[in-house]
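STRUCTURE:
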């Protein structure tokens, strides 16, 4: 039995859909905070179980009989590590045979704002004794959906990444990697650095948006602190603005790209090209 936590989230839904193409629905568990939101999966034969990262008893019940669990990282700042620890404890007590975790690129060495919780979670998982796989996901191209929409409206977008490159690809690529780990063999103990085959810069992104839309879009580079202030001025909360500005700092420093090739090897195909990803974002 394969359990996917956060199964109604943007990544989780794609993982469940991918699993349903490879294993019987009855062997898939959608572990979710609100089971009503997973009614579509239940109607297709997927087991839906309540699993709240803040409710250890729900986690124990959700993991009962599980062979494999995918822990999709929490998105709750300040609580993430404690929530992950609760999941790991429940998985160990339930006798789970394999725990996969969606971490972040180069979690053990990167300076990214979001990295400490991921690094600490990896350490907790290693210490638990559970067979594990770390899926160190890079950035999703969907992160730039709003940026692209605004750029098309005003003709430009700002950032602080300079000429740095990132290996962002659509969530579907990362979901496919998770499906392979959950259904394939030989992934225990592996740490996969997952990013696109062809890293791109923000000027590359602007050119791709221009080509896909027919509207001229340019990129305006700013110092990191100035960009943070711009984001705050646009109405973003300080912590979110700081995180986004730091992500651009990380891109400039090469922390959101990887030459590992792990992602394309896992999914058995080249990662989605930037032009294709941008076209999809513009259409939607």
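SEQUENCE:
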């Amino acid at each position: 039995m394969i359990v996917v936590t956060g199964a109604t989230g943007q990544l989780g839904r794609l993982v469940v859909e991918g699993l349903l193409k490879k294993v019987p629905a009855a062997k898939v568990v959608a572990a979710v905070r609100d089971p009503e939101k997973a009614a579509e999966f239940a109607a297709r034969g997927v087991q839906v179980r309540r699993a709240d990262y803040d409710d250890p008893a729900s986690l124990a019940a959700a993991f009962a009989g599980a062979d494999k669990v995918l822990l999709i990282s929490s998105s709750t700042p300040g609580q993430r590590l404690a929530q992950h620890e609760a999941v790991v404890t429940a998985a160990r007590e339930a006798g789970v045979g394999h725990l996969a975790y969606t971490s972040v690129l180069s979690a053990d060495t990167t300076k990214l704002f979001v990295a400490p919780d991921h690094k600490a979670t990896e350490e907790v998982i290693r210490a638990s004794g559970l067979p594990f796989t770390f899926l160190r996901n890079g950035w999703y191209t969907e992160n730039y959906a709003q940026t692209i929409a605004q750029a098309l409206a005003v003709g430009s977008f700002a950032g602080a990444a300079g000429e740095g490159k990132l290996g962002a690809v659509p969530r579907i690529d990362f979901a496919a990697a998770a499906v392979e780990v959950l259904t394939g063999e030989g992934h225990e103990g592996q740490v996969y650095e997952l990013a696109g085959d062809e890293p791109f810069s923000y000027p590359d992104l602007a050119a791709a948006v221009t080509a896909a839309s027919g509207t001229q879009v340019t990129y305006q580079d700013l110092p990191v602190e100035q960009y943070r202030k711009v984001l705050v001025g646009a109405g973003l909360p300080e912590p979110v603005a700081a995180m986004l500005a730091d992500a651009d700092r990380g891109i400039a420093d090469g922390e959101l790209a990887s030459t590992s090739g792990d992602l394309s090897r896992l999914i058995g195909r080249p990662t989605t090209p930037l032009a294709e990803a941008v076209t999809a974002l513009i259409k939607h």
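REMARK: The first helix runs from residue 10 to 20.
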